[in-house]
Amino acid sequence: MPNIKDFNILPWILILLCPYTVELTSQDQHIVEEFNIVKQWNKGDKLYPPNWEALDKRPLPVWYDSAKIGIFVVWGVYSVPSVYDEWFWCFWKEKKIPKYVEFMKKNYRPGFTYPDFAPMLTAEFLDTDEWASLFKSSGAEYVVFTTKHHEGFTMWPSNHSFNWNSMAVGPKRDIVGELVTSLRKKDLRVGLYHSLFEWFNPLFLQDKANNFTTQEFVTTKTMPELYELVNNYKPDLIWSDGSPAPSSYWNSTEFLAWLYNYSPVRDEIVTNDRWGTDTMCKHGGFLTCSDRFNPGKLQKKKWENAMTIDKVSWGFRRNAKLDEFLTIEELIASIVSTISCGGNILINVAPSYDGTIQPLFQERLKQMGSWLQVNSEAIYGSFPWKHQNDTSTPRVWYTEQQIKTNKAVYAITLNWPDKYLYLKSPIPVQDQTFVYFLGTEGQLEWTSPPQGGINITLPYIPYNKMPCHWAWVFRLEGLQNG
């Protein structure tokens, strides 16, 4: 446990005092009433009662599986020091990792505290409409924004984070509200990331010291924030994180039962699996299992690969090196392998303290968008085929799509072949099989060699005339049993 002298406790003192110095707002009272509805659950109710067996039976809303690609935006007070990673406060003050400690000694005055960074989160160049336009141009279908990371700073004017939120200090703006409005103008689905715990909140530390047999932090902070986010912003997705305690401590099943049965977003809301130490990769609407989870094979339940363009950090880093970012080839490979195996991919970008998204992140997103303009039919709304990758030719992945009354199989090759593309898998060709190269006109010639499969003759296309330059997609129609 960190020494209380190591950080400024003023924001937490104010948070603790606030509930006793103001009356509950009408909205807060409504939240309490809704919470009590779930706590007094009628066992005869035919909806989703607050237990994992029942909650896991809720069908995943169709929009999520069809969307395939989302953008993750990790932004908070850690974007001000912007070195090493978004766990800066914890690694500096609790873990006392030498490079973090030395950085602060070298660059900041004695007695400087982490909350002193908050006024420097200026966001003077933040234009959420520009962000939304960039995300739309990337081809993403949904965006997940960090409303609160483990530092506890809320990016909306929460009634439960007094003096430690984006309206009270720093930007002096409701960042969540502005971004939600901008995303919806671009018809992008809205996801809200929320950390269940906070590193240095005294209420959480006290519950932890009590082996999580008390729930002061949950009832005073975590759950009121979640109800507030849902009622105020009506998201399409709740991306929970930071759960160093069992789901019973967090009252996770009670919240999800309310979310699925009574909330204003009950029909369309999607949730992940990070609701307690006992839930990851097991319970929830879809599974994340771990950061950058990409198993390379089909899973029994819908899953998501939450990953980063910056291979080192989720938060913005001023000290990042060029080779620490994914190339566009690496990014496309991650997208293709994820979707071929039935997952969605959530691609993180990290804004700077001033609200700008750096050019390298912009470039990757726009490159991705240009690739998807050519190859979208192999991605959006697709399904995994019976084979995920080819059994003979390396770096070939498959998806399947329903086209009217027939099915099409898409072979996505990450390497451009010389003259022929041989697919084995096996490919059940017949005389009525037709092959197309996405982004070009006409059918391609093919033969069926003695060993089976299909050998596709590739057209000669000058480099500057290629429909795309990073991965190439071939549509196969009229396969047997296809």
From TrEMBL:
Does the keyword Metal-binding belong to this entry?
Answer: no
In this chain the Glycoside hydrolase family 29 N-terminal domain maps to 45-377
List the signal peptide residues: 1-24
State the GO CC annotations: lysosome
Sequence ranges assigned to domain Alpha-L-fucosidase C-terminal in this UniProt record: 388-477
Q: Which residues form a coiled coil?
A: none
Task: Tell me the keywords, alphabetical order.
Answer: Glycoprotein, Glycosidase, Hydrolase, Signal
Q: Which domain of life is it from?
A: Eukaryota
What are its E.C. numbers?
3.2.1.51
Subunit architecture: Homotetramer.
Put simply, this protein is called alpha-L-fucosidase
In its UniProt entry, the species of origin is given as Mytilus galloprovincialis (Mediterranean mussel)
